Amino acid sequence: MKCKVCKGEAFIKFPAHNAAFCEEHFDAFFIRQVEKAIRRYGMLSPGAGVMVAVSGGKDSLVVADVLSLLGYAVRGLHIDLGIDDNGFSAQSREVSASFFSRRGLPLQVLDLRETFGMSVVEAGRRFPRFCSLCGMTKRYLMNRTAAEAGVEALVTGHNLDDLASALLANVLRWDLRYLAKTLPVLPGENGFARKVKPLALLSEREIAAYAGVHAIQVVTARCPYSTEAKFLRFKRVLNDIEDQSPGTKRRFYEGYVDAAHLFQTSGGVQGGALRPCTVCGMPTSAEVCSFCKTWRGRR
Amino acid sequence: MKCKVCKGEAFIKFPAHNAAFCEEHFDAFFIRQVEKAIRRYGMLSPGAGVMVAVSGGKDSLVVADVLSLLGYAVRGLHIDLGIDDNGFSAQSREVSASFFSRRGLPLQVLDLRETFGMSVVEAGRRFPRFCSLCGMTKRYLMNRTAAEAGVEALVTGHNLDDLASALLANVLRWDLRYLAKTLPVLPGENGFARKVKPLALLSEREIAAYAGVHAIQVVTARCPYSTEAKFLRFKRVLNDIEDQSPGTKRRFYEGYVDAAHLFQTSGGVQGGALRPCTVCGMPTSAEVCSFCKTWRGRR
After folding, report:
1. What is the C-alpha to C-alpha distance for residues B270 and B167, in angstroms, rounded to an integer?
2. Residue among A173, A248, A262 whose CB faces B172 most closely
3. Which terminal residue of chain A, N or C, has fewer Cβ atoms less than 10 Å from its own Cβ?
């Protein structure tokens, strides 16, 4: 197996791109794919200031790495959820902090216990749907912190597998509201931060390879509460199809982005009829938003 | 396992409907599902005259059986393709003729060799994509014969698995033209016959069970040229998802029908800018239609 560029020994093969690469030219290929997504979907202006949501997983660290390399002014936001059971939160925070400090990039850490007096586990105890409470909490804090920081966009590490599997789930239900939102760029509107996903066209395997080549150390502990088998199932389904028809996953997502205007309603992408929360002022469909109900004990 | 209706011994279980049935009540359930699809999608007026496209497979014979039972004036159209290799065409014709004659229903047989001087195998020899030529031929003849017969609709036996797997294939490519056409009813327009699919909400397994209960004899030979592994693959994928979340397949298809107006373009569903073929007058995008090029030697 030879590198497509230099004909040297390849270390990785991508059937979807009908190509194999050595480490050096894989790196160039990977960065080009990120640049392509940024340009094609009008994600960022050159050198823009961005806030990267950092979990400590490969996706968020790789996207921070590449954006910094491409000259964007990267700052990170890490939310310490306070999940102690298997050291998940401590390791996530440690890995994130060490990555950012080694690159001399600023990282803001928001500790739920310090700030709100309880961990996500304690807050979740009263709720049956723990993961959705955790997701809501992270979304709220990322939105608000990005808005306060005045950056051009909030960057997340969502990759092609995340987006394509979410898309498949949404399409199987024809959930039009979500079908309008599985986009690589969401405009800043209705009080929500502008959101961009520079890894939208790159698969988990490609991102893992990039992390490997650059010896990026990522969190190895898994969240002990993670039971999210549903998207995993759709990822598996898409990987099966991909094995037989390389490129399907990417065509599926790219084709969706081209067609997504069909699903757009008049209310905008990030929220229909919303009003400011009477406690915090962030957009909500209720009088008091879910975040304030949960974390500030307001009903 | 008990019948949902009479609590007698059930012979079949449907997780998607959270129900099991004895033979008698399965039969009632099956017929109700066909009536429901006809009513919900406005397929047919009471007692309407219909032409059923009959291959001799379970789907086409079952749909003819149920429609006749429901009081529609059923007539069949069988196309003898002239595929001799394993007796496929002879058996298909024999099974179809015997089913219709036993029920006292009229069946029109259109023999390609008799009418056009060659079988689909001979016509296909010059073409690389044999299956698509065969499909085009059948569609053309069904359209024309139904129009000549003056029936309210051309009925095909497409089932939920056919439609959901085609839909998944179309959605993975975001093929908007096909996404507008995977509907249970296509209006008669631009010279095309009105087409309805009364088995749209019933799965292959349910149809096979109905054929079994009624001892309907179906073709056992498979077309020796059938290599259509692609849709089979999507059927398998959907069945895997269905096993884990019963009802997904049906929700996927029903949700699509509700959303399909989003994919409709101004050209109508069955064809955009078409004109009459200069040889036969049927709608085509070229000067001479593919059918006349193939079967009437016109270029």
Report:
1. 16
2. A248
3. C
